[in-house]
Amino acid sequence: MGFKSNQSEAFQNGLKPEGDYECIITAIEERTTKKGSAGLNFTLVIRNDVQGQKYGNSCLFHTIWKKHEPNENDMQVEGYNFAQLMAMGKAAKLPDGKEYDSLKAYCTDLLNKCIRVDLTHEEWNGKEQERINFVNPTKYPECKHKFKSSAPKADSFATKQTGFATPKTNTQADSAIGSLEDFEDVLTDDGVPF
Q1: Is the CATH number 3.30.420 carried by domain 18-145+161-168?
Q2: DSSP H or E stretch at residue 72
Q3: Of 8, 24, 84, 194, which one has the greatest count of Cβ atoms within 10 A?
Q4: What is the C-alpha to C-alpha distance for residues 164 and 135, in angstroms, rounded to an integer?
Q5: 66 close to 38: Cβ distance less than 8 angstroms
Q6: 8 A C-beta contact, residue 143 and residue 115
Q7: Cross-referenced Pfam families, in alphabetical order (predicted)?
Q8: What residues pair up with 120 in beta bridges, in sequence order?
Q9: Angle between the N-to-C axes of helices 103-110 and 82-91, in degrees from 0 to 180, rounded to the nearest 10
């Protein structure tokens, strides 16, 4: 079977076009950069069940950073930006007013939830990169996304990438959690906006 070249489908500079994407939250991992900045990294898979949406099964990434000067609300979520975490929960339609005994429980509740993100491009250190500007509730709450069968399972990740909340299957959340001291995975500071 042959095909016809269509260069309008090519990524520009390796970036997906700016705009709204319907996604599923598939993993949340706590990571630390070389300079010691901690962040909760969200892995979002672009849904393949939304008609007219391109790039199904591609990943987008979003980080919520631990604040240098956390306020009282931030301290409830281990120093991470409370307002940004609550915006993620609102977009994922978590019940307002629900009590959580830990950040881990909140993150576990976020797994496999559908959200809509606004993707933009920004320049950082002379490089153009993707950035999630806003998170919003999905316009397609009935999810029929089909995950790739070759997708890695949570238990297939290297031990140093222990997830803060990573699914073992499409419907179960991993109960393992690592503390900051357990993490050896180091990111460069190229993507950190401070």
Answers
A1: no
A2: helix 72-76
A3: 24
A4: 20
A5: yes
A6: no
A7: DUF669
A8: 131
A9: 30
